[in-house]
Amino acid sequence: MARPVLVPILGDQLTRTLASLRGQAKEDTVILMMEVWDEATYVRHHKQKIALVFSAMRHFAAELRDAGWQVDYVRLDEPDNSGSFTGEVARAIERHDPREIRVVEAGEFRVAQAIGEWPDKFACPVEVLPDDRFIASIAEFRDWARDRKALRMEHFYREMRRKTGLLMDDDEPEGGKWNYDHDNREPPGKGLFAPSRPLFAPDEITCEVIGLVQDRFGDHFGNLASFHWPVTRDQAEEAADAFFSERLPDFGKYQDAMVCGEDDLFHSMLSTSINLGLLDPLDLCRRAEEEYRKGKAPLNSVEGFIRQIIGWREYVRGFYWHFMPGLEEANELNATRDLPEFYWTGETDMRCLADCVRSTRDNAHAHHIQRLMVLGNFALVAGIAPRQVQDWFLVVYADAYDWVELPNVAAMALYADGGRLASKPYAASGNYINKMSDYCGQCRYSPSRKTGEDACPFNPLYWHFMHRNRDRLEANHRIGRIYSTWDRMDEHKRAEYLDSAEKFLSSLEPANKRWARK
Ligand code: FAD
Ligand code: DLZ
Ligand code: SF4
Question: What is the residue range of 63's domain?
Protein backbone atom coordinates (compact mmCIF):
# COMPACT_ATOMS: atom_id res chain seq x y z
CA MET A 1 0.00 0.00 0.00
CA ALA A 2 1.03 3.64 -0.42
CA ARG A 3 2.35 5.31 2.72
CA PRO A 4 -0.53 5.01 5.23
CA VAL A 5 -1.88 7.35 7.88
CA LEU A 6 -0.88 6.18 11.39
CA VAL A 7 -3.68 6.57 13.94
CA PRO A 8 -2.57 5.96 17.54
CA ILE A 9 -5.56 5.20 19.78
CA LEU A 10 -4.93 5.60 23.51
CA GLY A 11 -6.39 3.38 26.20
CA ASP A 12 -9.23 5.77 27.06
CA GLN A 13 -10.18 6.40 23.42
CA LEU A 14 -11.97 3.11 22.71
CA THR A 15 -14.71 4.64 20.57
CA ARG A 16 -15.51 3.48 17.04
CA THR A 17 -16.53 6.98 15.98
CA LEU A 18 -13.34 8.60 17.34
CA ALA A 19 -12.48 11.84 15.48
CA SER A 20 -9.17 10.39 14.20
CA LEU A 21 -10.97 7.50 12.45
CA ARG A 22 -13.74 9.56 10.95
CA GLY A 23 -13.31 9.98 7.22
CA GLN A 24 -10.34 7.59 7.11
CA ALA A 25 -10.27 4.83 4.49
CA LYS A 26 -9.55 1.47 6.10
CA GLU A 27 -7.03 0.42 3.44
CA ASP A 28 -5.12 3.68 3.92
CA THR A 29 -4.90 3.55 7.72
CA VAL A 30 -2.86 1.71 10.34
CA ILE A 31 -4.30 1.96 13.84
CA LEU A 32 -1.68 1.73 16.58
CA MET A 33 -2.60 0.57 20.08
CA MET A 34 0.08 0.29 22.75
CA GLU A 35 0.23 -1.35 26.15
CA VAL A 36 3.11 0.51 27.77
CA TRP A 37 4.87 0.25 31.08
CA ASP A 38 4.89 4.04 31.67
CA GLU A 39 1.08 4.25 31.64
CA ALA A 40 0.68 1.29 33.94
CA THR A 41 3.15 2.63 36.48
CA TYR A 42 3.26 6.46 36.51
CA VAL A 43 1.21 5.77 39.59
CA ARG A 44 0.80 2.23 40.83
CA HIS A 45 -2.80 1.79 39.68
CA HIS A 46 -5.20 -0.61 41.37
CA LYS A 47 -4.76 -4.03 39.75
CA GLN A 48 -8.36 -3.97 38.48
CA LYS A 49 -7.76 -0.71 36.65
CA ILE A 50 -4.80 -2.07 34.68
CA ALA A 51 -6.71 -5.27 33.91
CA LEU A 52 -9.75 -3.24 32.81
CA VAL A 53 -7.79 -0.95 30.49
CA PHE A 54 -5.75 -3.75 28.89
CA SER A 55 -8.73 -6.06 28.48
CA ALA A 56 -10.91 -3.30 27.02
CA MET A 57 -8.06 -2.33 24.65
CA ARG A 58 -7.61 -5.91 23.46
CA HIS A 59 -11.34 -6.38 22.93
CA PHE A 60 -11.55 -3.07 21.08
CA ALA A 61 -8.62 -4.03 18.81
CA ALA A 62 -10.44 -7.29 17.97
CA GLU A 63 -13.64 -5.37 17.23
CA LEU A 64 -11.77 -2.99 14.92
CA ARG A 65 -10.09 -5.88 13.09
CA ASP A 66 -13.46 -7.61 12.65
CA ALA A 67 -14.71 -4.39 11.10
CA GLY A 68 -11.86 -4.47 8.58
CA TRP A 69 -9.35 -2.05 10.11
CA GLN A 70 -5.62 -2.82 10.22
CA VAL A 71 -4.56 -2.72 13.84
CA ASP A 72 -0.96 -2.84 14.97
CA TYR A 73 -1.30 -3.87 18.63
CA VAL A 74 1.75 -3.79 20.90
CA ARG A 75 1.43 -5.97 23.97
CA LEU A 76 3.07 -5.13 27.27
CA ASP A 77 5.17 -8.29 27.30
CA GLU A 78 6.53 -7.87 23.75
CA PRO A 79 10.33 -8.05 24.11
CA ASP A 80 11.08 -4.81 22.20
CA ASN A 81 8.31 -2.77 23.83
CA SER A 82 9.97 0.57 24.65
CA GLY A 83 7.60 1.27 27.55
CA SER A 84 6.31 4.67 26.38
CA PHE A 85 3.82 6.08 23.88
CA THR A 86 6.52 8.14 22.20
CA GLY A 87 8.88 5.16 21.97
CA GLU A 88 6.15 2.99 20.46
CA VAL A 89 5.11 5.60 17.91
CA ALA A 90 8.78 5.88 16.91
CA ARG A 91 8.97 2.11 16.40
CA ALA A 92 5.67 2.11 14.48
CA ILE A 93 7.03 4.82 12.16
CA GLU A 94 9.91 2.48 11.31
CA ARG A 95 7.50 -0.38 10.63
CA HIS A 96 4.93 1.51 8.56
CA ASP A 97 6.65 4.63 7.18
CA PRO A 98 3.43 6.67 7.53
CA ARG A 99 2.83 9.88 5.58
CA GLU A 100 1.01 11.41 8.55
CA ILE A 101 0.04 10.78 12.20
CA ARG A 102 -3.51 11.60 13.28
CA VAL A 103 -4.26 11.42 16.97
CA VAL A 104 -7.06 12.64 19.22
CA GLU A 105 -5.86 14.95 22.01
CA ALA A 106 -4.94 13.12 25.20
CA GLY A 107 -7.17 13.27 28.25
CA GLU A 108 -4.26 13.89 30.59
CA PHE A 109 -1.91 16.86 30.64
CA ARG A 110 1.12 14.58 31.10
CA VAL A 111 0.35 12.66 27.89
CA ALA A 112 -0.65 15.80 25.97
CA GLN A 113 2.81 17.24 26.77
CA ALA A 114 4.46 14.15 25.32
CA ILE A 115 2.31 14.27 22.17
CA GLY A 116 3.15 17.97 21.84
CA GLU A 117 6.78 16.94 21.29
CA TRP A 118 6.02 14.52 18.44
CA PRO A 119 6.20 17.08 15.59
CA ASP A 120 9.81 17.88 16.57
CA LYS A 121 10.74 14.26 17.15
CA PHE A 122 9.26 12.64 14.06
CA ALA A 123 9.84 13.38 10.41
CA CYS A 124 6.18 13.24 9.43
CA PRO A 125 3.32 15.67 10.09
CA VAL A 126 1.28 15.18 13.25
CA GLU A 127 -2.35 16.27 13.43
CA VAL A 128 -3.87 16.49 16.93
CA LEU A 129 -7.67 16.54 16.82
CA PRO A 130 -10.06 17.78 19.53
CA ASP A 131 -11.76 15.05 21.52
CA ASP A 132 -15.35 15.70 20.49
CA ARG A 133 -16.73 12.95 22.71
CA PHE A 134 -17.06 15.79 25.22
CA ILE A 135 -19.98 18.16 24.79
CA ALA A 136 -17.91 21.28 25.45
CA SER A 137 -14.51 21.68 23.84
CA ILE A 138 -11.58 22.92 25.92
CA ALA A 139 -11.73 26.22 24.00
CA GLU A 140 -15.45 26.56 24.73
CA PHE A 141 -14.85 26.17 28.47
CA ARG A 142 -12.06 28.77 28.33
CA ASP A 143 -14.41 31.21 26.60
CA TRP A 144 -17.06 30.58 29.22
CA ALA A 145 -14.54 30.99 32.07
CA ARG A 146 -12.89 34.12 30.70
CA ASP A 147 -13.70 37.22 32.75
CA ARG A 148 -15.81 35.30 35.26
CA LYS A 149 -14.93 35.77 38.89
CA ALA A 150 -16.52 32.54 40.07
CA LEU A 151 -16.67 29.43 37.90
CA ARG A 152 -19.74 27.77 39.32
CA MET A 153 -20.77 24.42 37.88
CA GLU A 154 -24.44 25.37 38.07
CA HIS A 155 -24.03 28.20 35.56
CA PHE A 156 -21.96 26.09 33.19
CA TYR A 157 -24.52 23.29 33.49
CA ARG A 158 -27.33 25.58 32.34
CA GLU A 159 -25.30 26.42 29.23
CA MET A 160 -24.91 22.71 28.55
CA ARG A 161 -28.65 22.14 28.99
CA ARG A 162 -29.34 24.87 26.46
CA LYS A 163 -26.67 23.57 24.10
CA THR A 164 -27.92 19.97 24.12
CA GLY A 165 -31.64 20.73 24.57
CA LEU A 166 -31.72 18.07 27.32
CA LEU A 167 -34.72 18.47 29.65
CA MET A 168 -35.65 21.77 28.04
CA ASP A 169 -39.13 23.03 27.44
CA ASP A 170 -38.41 25.62 24.74
CA ASP A 171 -36.10 28.03 26.57
CA GLU A 172 -37.18 26.95 30.04
CA PRO A 173 -35.95 24.03 32.14
CA GLU A 174 -38.33 21.09 32.30
CA GLY A 175 -40.55 21.34 35.40
CA GLY A 176 -39.58 24.99 35.95
CA LYS A 177 -36.35 24.39 37.89
CA TRP A 178 -32.82 23.74 36.64
CA ASN A 179 -31.77 21.65 39.60
CA TYR A 180 -33.67 19.20 41.80
CA ASP A 181 -30.84 18.49 44.21
CA HIS A 182 -33.03 19.28 47.21
CA ASP A 183 -35.09 16.17 46.43
CA ASN A 184 -31.95 14.08 46.19
CA ARG A 185 -30.85 13.86 49.80
CA GLU A 186 -32.98 11.14 51.32
CA PRO A 187 -31.28 9.17 54.11
CA PRO A 188 -31.14 5.43 53.47
CA GLY A 189 -33.70 4.14 56.00
CA LYS A 190 -33.35 0.73 57.59
CA GLY A 191 -32.51 -2.18 55.29
CA LEU A 192 -32.21 -0.17 52.06
CA PHE A 193 -30.79 -2.22 49.20
CA ALA A 194 -30.82 -1.91 45.43
CA PRO A 195 -31.46 -4.50 42.69
CA SER A 196 -28.23 -6.29 41.83
CA ARG A 197 -26.54 -5.22 38.61
CA PRO A 198 -25.05 -7.38 35.86
CA LEU A 199 -21.56 -8.64 36.67
CA PHE A 200 -19.37 -9.74 33.78
CA ALA A 201 -17.36 -12.89 34.34
CA PRO A 202 -13.88 -12.63 32.81
CA ASP A 203 -13.69 -14.23 29.33
CA GLU A 204 -10.54 -15.70 27.79
CA ILE A 205 -9.02 -12.32 26.92
CA THR A 206 -9.69 -10.89 30.37
CA CYS A 207 -8.34 -14.02 32.07
CA GLU A 208 -5.13 -13.71 30.10
CA VAL A 209 -4.82 -10.05 31.09
CA ILE A 210 -5.57 -10.85 34.73
CA GLY A 211 -2.70 -13.35 34.62
CA LEU A 212 -0.40 -10.68 33.18
CA VAL A 213 -1.42 -8.13 35.81
CA GLN A 214 -0.98 -10.65 38.62
CA ASP A 215 2.45 -11.48 37.25
CA ARG A 216 3.73 -7.94 36.54
CA PHE A 217 1.76 -5.78 38.96
CA GLY A 218 0.97 -8.25 41.72
CA ASP A 219 2.34 -5.89 44.36
CA HIS A 220 -0.05 -3.07 43.40
CA PHE A 221 -3.00 -2.19 45.65
CA GLY A 222 -6.33 -3.94 45.34
CA ASN A 223 -8.21 -7.16 44.93
CA LEU A 224 -8.13 -8.67 41.42
CA ALA A 225 -10.24 -11.78 41.99
CA SER A 226 -13.44 -9.73 42.18
CA PHE A 227 -12.98 -8.25 38.67
CA HIS A 228 -16.31 -8.00 36.85
CA TRP A 229 -16.26 -4.73 34.92
CA PRO A 230 -17.77 -4.43 31.44
CA VAL A 231 -14.86 -4.64 28.97
CA THR A 232 -16.71 -4.31 25.64
CA ARG A 233 -19.25 -1.90 24.26
CA ASP A 234 -21.92 -4.62 24.26
CA GLN A 235 -21.33 -5.37 27.93
CA ALA A 236 -21.34 -1.68 28.80
CA GLU A 237 -24.65 -1.30 26.95
CA GLU A 238 -26.05 -4.21 28.93
CA ALA A 239 -24.96 -2.51 32.17
CA ALA A 240 -26.59 0.74 31.03
CA ASP A 241 -29.85 -1.05 30.09
CA ALA A 242 -30.04 -2.59 33.56
CA PHE A 243 -29.39 0.76 35.21
CA PHE A 244 -32.10 2.54 33.23
CA SER A 245 -34.73 -0.11 33.80
CA GLU A 246 -33.98 -1.00 37.42
CA ARG A 247 -32.09 1.73 39.28
CA LEU A 248 -32.60 5.10 37.59
CA PRO A 249 -36.03 5.71 39.20
CA ASP A 250 -34.46 5.73 42.70
CA PHE A 251 -31.10 7.18 41.63
CA GLY A 252 -32.03 10.74 42.65
CA LYS A 253 -33.65 10.03 45.96
CA TYR A 254 -30.74 7.97 47.31
CA GLN A 255 -27.90 9.72 45.53
CA ASP A 256 -26.28 10.80 48.80
CA ALA A 257 -27.16 7.72 50.88
CA MET A 258 -24.55 5.29 52.21
CA VAL A 259 -25.19 1.78 53.50
CA CYS A 260 -22.47 -0.42 54.96
CA GLY A 261 -21.70 -3.31 52.58
CA GLU A 262 -24.16 -2.03 49.90
CA ASP A 263 -21.49 -0.75 47.59
CA ASP A 264 -23.40 0.39 44.51
CA LEU A 265 -26.89 1.31 45.79
CA PHE A 266 -28.72 3.08 42.95
CA HIS A 267 -25.63 4.45 41.23
CA SER A 268 -25.10 3.64 37.57
CA MET A 269 -21.58 2.17 37.93
CA LEU A 270 -21.00 3.38 34.37
CA SER A 271 -18.06 5.75 34.92
CA THR A 272 -15.44 3.17 33.92
CA SER A 273 -17.21 2.52 30.61
CA ILE A 274 -17.84 6.21 29.90
CA ASN A 275 -14.24 7.17 30.65
CA LEU A 276 -12.82 4.40 28.46
CA GLY A 277 -15.04 5.51 25.57
CA LEU A 278 -17.26 2.43 25.51
CA LEU A 279 -20.38 4.50 26.23
CA ASP A 280 -21.28 7.88 24.82
CA PRO A 281 -22.16 10.36 27.61
CA LEU A 282 -24.65 12.36 25.55
CA ASP A 283 -26.39 9.22 24.37
CA LEU A 284 -26.79 8.10 28.01
CA CYS A 285 -28.34 11.44 28.90
CA ARG A 286 -30.79 11.19 26.01
CA ARG A 287 -31.77 7.72 27.15
CA ALA A 288 -32.33 8.99 30.70
CA GLU A 289 -34.52 11.78 29.36
CA GLU A 290 -36.52 9.24 27.38
CA GLU A 291 -37.23 7.32 30.60
CA TYR A 292 -38.64 10.52 32.08
CA ARG A 293 -40.70 11.36 28.99
CA LYS A 294 -42.16 7.83 29.03
CA GLY A 295 -43.10 8.32 32.68
CA LYS A 296 -40.75 5.57 33.87
CA ALA A 297 -38.42 7.70 36.00
CA PRO A 298 -39.08 10.86 38.01
CA LEU A 299 -37.63 14.22 37.07
CA ASN A 300 -35.40 14.52 40.15
CA SER A 301 -33.60 11.26 39.24
CA VAL A 302 -33.25 12.03 35.57
CA GLU A 303 -32.17 15.64 36.08
CA GLY A 304 -29.71 14.46 38.76
CA PHE A 305 -28.16 11.88 36.44
CA ILE A 306 -27.96 14.30 33.51
CA ARG A 307 -26.42 16.97 35.75
CA GLN A 308 -23.66 14.59 36.85
CA ILE A 309 -22.73 14.02 33.23
CA ILE A 310 -23.28 17.22 31.25
CA GLY A 311 -22.78 19.31 34.38
CA TRP A 312 -20.08 17.92 36.64
CA ARG A 313 -18.23 15.67 34.21
CA GLU A 314 -17.95 18.33 31.50
CA TYR A 315 -17.24 21.06 34.00
CA VAL A 316 -14.37 19.30 35.78
CA ARG A 317 -12.77 18.48 32.45
CA GLY A 318 -12.87 22.13 31.38
CA PHE A 319 -11.69 23.19 34.84
CA TYR A 320 -8.74 20.78 34.63
CA TRP A 321 -7.46 22.18 31.33
CA HIS A 322 -8.09 25.74 32.45
CA PHE A 323 -5.97 25.39 35.59
CA MET A 324 -3.29 22.91 34.58
CA PRO A 325 -0.45 22.55 35.33
CA GLY A 326 -0.87 24.66 38.51
CA LEU A 327 -3.77 22.62 39.87
CA GLU A 328 -1.46 19.72 40.76
CA GLU A 329 0.50 21.88 43.19
CA ALA A 330 -2.42 23.83 44.63
CA ASN A 331 -2.44 23.83 48.44
CA GLU A 332 -4.34 26.92 49.52
CA LEU A 333 -4.97 25.59 53.03
CA ASN A 334 -1.33 24.64 53.47
CA ALA A 335 -2.14 21.05 54.42
CA THR A 336 1.00 19.02 55.09
CA ARG A 337 0.10 15.93 57.12
CA ASP A 338 1.00 12.51 55.68
CA LEU A 339 -1.77 10.28 54.38
CA PRO A 340 -2.65 7.77 57.13
CA GLU A 341 -1.82 4.13 56.52
CA PHE A 342 -5.47 3.11 56.94
CA TYR A 343 -6.27 4.58 53.50
CA TRP A 344 -4.46 1.50 52.19
CA THR A 345 -5.28 -1.11 54.79
CA GLY A 346 -8.76 -0.08 55.96
CA GLU A 347 -7.56 -0.80 59.48
CA THR A 348 -9.27 1.87 61.51
CA ASP A 349 -12.02 1.87 64.09
CA MET A 350 -13.82 4.55 62.09
CA ARG A 351 -16.43 2.31 60.52
CA CYS A 352 -17.33 4.67 57.67
CA LEU A 353 -13.72 4.92 56.52
CA ALA A 354 -13.05 1.21 56.96
CA ASP A 355 -16.06 0.35 54.77
CA CYS A 356 -15.15 2.86 52.06
CA VAL A 357 -11.57 1.56 51.90
CA ARG A 358 -12.87 -2.02 51.76
CA SER A 359 -15.13 -1.22 48.82
CA THR A 360 -12.27 0.65 47.16
CA ARG A 361 -9.89 -2.29 47.58
CA ASP A 362 -12.41 -4.95 46.51
CA ASN A 363 -14.21 -3.12 43.70
CA ALA A 364 -11.80 -0.34 42.62
CA HIS A 365 -14.87 1.83 43.19
CA ALA A 366 -16.65 3.86 45.85
CA HIS A 367 -19.61 6.03 45.09
CA HIS A 368 -19.56 9.78 44.97
CA ILE A 369 -20.68 10.60 48.47
CA GLN A 370 -18.25 8.06 49.96
CA ARG A 371 -15.43 9.68 47.99
CA LEU A 372 -16.48 13.22 48.90
CA MET A 373 -17.98 13.11 52.38
CA VAL A 374 -16.05 10.24 53.97
CA LEU A 375 -12.64 9.77 52.29
CA GLY A 376 -12.32 13.35 51.02
CA ASN A 377 -13.84 14.96 54.09
CA PHE A 378 -11.46 13.13 56.41
CA ALA A 379 -8.44 14.20 54.34
CA LEU A 380 -9.75 17.79 54.38
CA VAL A 381 -10.42 18.13 58.09
CA ALA A 382 -7.28 16.20 59.06
CA GLY A 383 -5.17 18.45 56.78
CA ILE A 384 -3.60 15.73 54.62
CA ALA A 385 -1.18 17.01 51.96
CA PRO A 386 -3.12 17.34 48.67
CA ARG A 387 -0.43 15.65 46.54
CA GLN A 388 -0.65 12.51 48.68
CA VAL A 389 -4.46 12.48 48.56
CA GLN A 390 -4.43 13.07 44.79
CA ASP A 391 -2.04 10.18 44.27
CA TRP A 392 -4.20 7.92 46.40
CA PHE A 393 -7.39 8.72 44.47
CA LEU A 394 -5.59 8.29 41.15
CA VAL A 395 -4.27 4.88 42.19
CA VAL A 396 -7.33 3.30 43.71
CA TYR A 397 -10.29 3.82 41.34
CA ALA A 398 -10.90 1.99 38.08
CA ASP A 399 -12.44 5.17 36.63
CA ALA A 400 -9.55 7.44 37.68
CA TYR A 401 -7.83 9.59 35.07
CA ASP A 402 -6.01 12.75 35.99
CA TRP A 403 -8.47 15.07 34.16
CA VAL A 404 -11.42 13.93 36.26
CA GLU A 405 -9.73 12.83 39.48
CA LEU A 406 -7.59 15.93 40.07
CA PRO A 407 -10.33 18.62 40.03
CA ASN A 408 -12.61 16.41 42.11
CA VAL A 409 -9.93 15.82 44.72
CA ALA A 410 -7.91 19.03 44.79
CA ALA A 411 -10.74 21.48 44.21
CA MET A 412 -13.97 19.78 45.27
CA ALA A 413 -12.87 17.62 48.20
CA LEU A 414 -9.82 19.48 49.55
CA TYR A 415 -10.52 23.13 48.66
CA ALA A 416 -6.84 23.26 47.69
CA ASP A 417 -7.69 25.67 44.85
CA GLY A 418 -8.95 28.24 47.35
CA GLY A 419 -12.55 28.12 46.21
CA ARG A 420 -12.44 28.44 42.43
CA LEU A 421 -14.66 25.37 42.15
CA ALA A 422 -16.57 25.16 45.42
CA SER A 423 -18.08 28.15 47.19
CA LYS A 424 -17.03 26.68 50.54
CA PRO A 425 -15.11 23.62 51.79
CA TYR A 426 -17.16 20.40 51.99
CA ALA A 427 -16.12 19.96 55.64
CA ALA A 428 -18.58 18.07 57.83
CA SER A 429 -18.77 16.62 61.32
CA GLY A 430 -19.99 13.11 62.19
CA ASN A 431 -23.54 14.39 62.17
CA TYR A 432 -23.70 14.45 58.36
CA ILE A 433 -22.42 10.87 58.00
CA ASN A 434 -24.74 9.70 60.75
CA LYS A 435 -27.73 11.24 58.98
CA MET A 436 -26.87 9.91 55.52
CA SER A 437 -25.68 6.39 56.39
CA ASP A 438 -26.04 3.41 58.68
CA TYR A 439 -22.33 3.46 59.53
CA CYS A 440 -22.46 5.03 62.96
CA GLY A 441 -24.76 2.60 64.77
CA GLN A 442 -22.09 -0.06 65.07
CA CYS A 443 -19.06 2.20 65.15
CA ARG A 444 -16.72 2.16 68.14
CA TYR A 445 -17.09 5.97 68.18
CA SER A 446 -20.23 7.93 68.91
CA PRO A 447 -21.37 10.66 66.50
CA SER A 448 -23.22 12.43 69.33
CA ARG A 449 -20.13 12.74 71.53
CA LYS A 450 -18.27 15.91 70.75
CA THR A 451 -14.94 15.43 72.49
CA GLY A 452 -12.98 12.78 74.33
CA GLU A 453 -11.82 9.29 73.40
CA ASP A 454 -15.22 7.99 72.33
CA ALA A 455 -16.25 11.00 70.28
CA CYS A 456 -16.55 10.55 66.55
CA PRO A 457 -13.17 11.92 65.34
CA PHE A 458 -14.93 13.97 62.67
CA ASN A 459 -16.44 16.16 65.43
CA PRO A 460 -13.27 17.62 66.97
CA LEU A 461 -11.48 17.49 63.60
CA TYR A 462 -14.19 19.68 62.08
CA TRP A 463 -13.59 22.42 64.66
CA HIS A 464 -9.83 21.97 64.49
CA PHE A 465 -10.10 22.53 60.72
CA MET A 466 -12.22 25.64 61.14
CA HIS A 467 -9.98 27.02 63.85
CA ARG A 468 -6.67 26.50 62.08
CA ASN A 469 -7.98 27.92 58.77
CA ARG A 470 -9.76 30.91 60.25
CA ASP A 471 -7.60 33.48 58.46
CA ARG A 472 -8.41 31.97 55.10
CA LEU A 473 -12.08 31.12 55.60
CA GLU A 474 -13.64 33.69 57.85
CA ALA A 475 -14.27 36.24 55.11
CA ASN A 476 -16.32 33.67 53.17
CA HIS A 477 -19.91 34.73 53.79
CA ARG A 478 -21.07 31.09 53.53
CA ILE A 479 -19.03 30.10 56.59
CA GLY A 480 -18.67 33.29 58.57
CA ARG A 481 -21.54 32.22 60.85
CA ILE A 482 -19.66 29.09 61.88
CA TYR A 483 -17.07 31.30 63.54
CA SER A 484 -19.78 33.12 65.49
CA THR A 485 -20.84 29.73 66.89
CA TRP A 486 -17.21 28.93 67.73
CA ASP A 487 -16.69 32.27 69.42
CA ARG A 488 -19.84 31.87 71.50
CA MET A 489 -18.64 28.51 72.78
CA ASP A 490 -17.26 28.23 76.27
CA GLU A 491 -13.47 28.64 76.23
CA HIS A 492 -13.05 25.36 78.04
CA LYS A 493 -15.17 23.55 75.41
CA ARG A 494 -13.12 25.03 72.59
CA ALA A 495 -9.92 23.83 74.26
CA GLU A 496 -11.43 20.36 74.63
CA TYR A 497 -12.25 20.22 70.92
CA LEU A 498 -8.73 21.24 69.94
CA ASP A 499 -7.16 18.88 72.43
CA SER A 500 -9.25 15.89 71.27
CA ALA A 501 -8.39 16.63 67.67
CA GLU A 502 -4.68 16.96 68.40
CA LYS A 503 -4.66 13.67 70.31
CA PHE A 504 -6.44 11.89 67.48
CA LEU A 505 -4.15 13.37 64.83
CA SER A 506 -1.03 12.36 66.71
CA SER A 507 -2.32 8.77 66.85
CA LEU A 508 -2.40 8.44 63.05
CA GLU A 509 0.20 6.18 61.51
CA PRO A 510 1.60 7.71 58.30
CA ALA A 511 1.28 5.60 55.16
CA ASN A 512 4.06 3.47 53.93
CA LYS A 513 4.83 5.06 50.55
CA ARG A 514 5.20 1.73 48.74
CA TRP A 515 1.75 1.89 47.23
CA ALA A 516 1.40 5.19 45.43
CA ARG A 517 4.40 5.94 43.22
CA LYS A 518 7.49 3.96 42.35
P1 FAD B 1 -23.16 7.86 39.17
O2 FAD B 1 -23.42 8.31 40.54
O3 FAD B 1 -24.08 6.87 38.58
O4 FAD B 1 -23.13 9.17 38.25
C5 FAD B 1 -23.33 9.08 36.82
C6 FAD B 1 -22.12 9.59 36.07
O7 FAD B 1 -21.92 10.97 36.30
C8 FAD B 1 -20.81 8.93 36.44
O9 FAD B 1 -20.65 7.69 35.80
C10 FAD B 1 -19.80 9.98 35.99
O11 FAD B 1 -19.50 9.82 34.62
C12 FAD B 1 -20.55 11.28 36.17
N13 FAD B 1 -20.13 11.99 37.39
C14 FAD B 1 -20.78 12.02 38.57
N15 FAD B 1 -20.15 12.86 39.42
C16 FAD B 1 -19.09 13.33 38.78
C17 FAD B 1 -18.04 14.22 39.14
N18 FAD B 1 -17.98 14.82 40.33
N19 FAD B 1 -17.07 14.46 38.23
C20 FAD B 1 -17.10 13.88 37.02
N21 FAD B 1 -18.08 13.04 36.62
C22 FAD B 1 -19.05 12.78 37.49
N23 FAD B 1 -15.14 10.23 38.70
C24 FAD B 1 -14.40 9.62 37.76
O25 FAD B 1 -14.92 9.25 36.70
N26 FAD B 1 -13.08 9.40 37.96
C27 FAD B 1 -12.45 9.78 39.10
O28 FAD B 1 -11.25 9.58 39.23
C29 FAD B 1 -13.21 10.43 40.10
N30 FAD B 1 -12.64 10.81 41.28
C31 FAD B 1 -13.40 11.44 42.22
C32 FAD B 1 -12.78 11.86 43.41
C33 FAD B 1 -13.52 12.53 44.37
C34 FAD B 1 -12.87 13.02 45.63
C35 FAD B 1 -14.89 12.78 44.16
C36 FAD B 1 -15.68 13.51 45.17
C37 FAD B 1 -15.50 12.35 42.99
C38 FAD B 1 -14.77 11.68 42.01
N39 FAD B 1 -15.37 11.25 40.82
C40 FAD B 1 -14.60 10.63 39.85
C41 FAD B 1 -16.78 11.51 40.54
C42 FAD B 1 -17.75 10.40 40.98
O43 FAD B 1 -17.51 10.04 42.30
C44 FAD B 1 -17.67 9.17 40.08
O45 FAD B 1 -17.80 9.57 38.72
C46 FAD B 1 -18.79 8.20 40.40
O47 FAD B 1 -18.71 7.78 41.73
C48 FAD B 1 -18.74 7.01 39.47
O49 FAD B 1 -19.70 6.05 39.81
P50 FAD B 1 -21.03 5.89 38.97
O51 FAD B 1 -20.70 5.67 37.53
O52 FAD B 1 -21.88 4.88 39.64
O53 FAD B 1 -21.65 7.35 39.09
C1 DLZ C 1 -4.59 3.81 32.46
C2 DLZ C 1 -3.84 3.19 31.33
C3 DLZ C 1 -2.99 2.13 31.57
C4 DLZ C 1 -2.89 1.49 32.90
N5 DLZ C 1 -2.27 1.59 30.58
C6 DLZ C 1 -2.38 2.07 29.33
C7 DLZ C 1 -1.62 1.56 28.25
O8 DLZ C 1 -0.77 0.69 28.42
N9 DLZ C 1 -1.83 2.05 27.02
C10 DLZ C 1 -2.71 3.03 26.78
O11 DLZ C 1 -2.88 3.42 25.62
N12 DLZ C 1 -3.39 3.60 27.79
C13 DLZ C 1 -3.26 3.13 29.05
N14 DLZ C 1 -3.95 3.68 30.06
C15 DLZ C 1 -4.82 4.83 29.77
C16 DLZ C 1 -3.94 6.07 29.55
O17 DLZ C 1 -3.28 6.39 30.76
C18 DLZ C 1 -4.82 7.19 29.05
O19 DLZ C 1 -5.14 6.91 27.74
C20 DLZ C 1 -4.12 8.50 29.15
O21 DLZ C 1 -4.40 8.99 30.41
C22 DLZ C 1 -4.57 9.49 28.14
O23 DLZ C 1 -4.12 10.77 28.43
FE1 SF4 D 1 -17.68 7.47 60.94
FE2 SF4 D 1 -17.92 8.92 63.17
FE3 SF4 D 1 -19.98 7.53 62.30
FE4 SF4 D 1 -17.88 6.26 63.31
S5 SF4 D 1 -19.25 7.64 64.39
S6 SF4 D 1 -18.97 5.71 61.43
S7 SF4 D 1 -16.21 7.58 62.62
S8 SF4 D 1 -19.01 9.23 61.25
Answer: 5-129
